[in-house]
Amino acid sequence: MKEQKNRKDYWLHEDIIVKIITSKLGEKCYKKKGVITKVENRYQAVVKMLDTNDKIRVDQAHVETVIPAIGKNVLIVNGAYRGEEATLEDIHQDTFSVDVTILTGSMVGTRFNNIAYEDVSKLAD
Q: Which parts of the sequence belong to the KN17 SH3-like domain (predicted)?
């Protein structure tokens, strides 16, 4: 029930790292990573590129989540625990999913398995 209520068609959050997946923004941005500094209209964000510090405005469809190394912190961007920070515990490349342990909110310390890649993204330091 909680999963359905918190599952949205928008997932952008401030302070997460995303990867640009459209070549329309030019070769200097394509497949590069940046930090979302501001979310606008739920579906658009201002992204500060990590390598150049350029700021660009992108649509949600033009970026994807970034999965960090095991042990690093992520933000759950969609689903039942949307908005909660967690630690990445394991990566399942065969099922495109991850296991996380919640760090914030009412479920602190709880481990959740098989969360889809697109539902978590690396937190900016």
A: 7-59
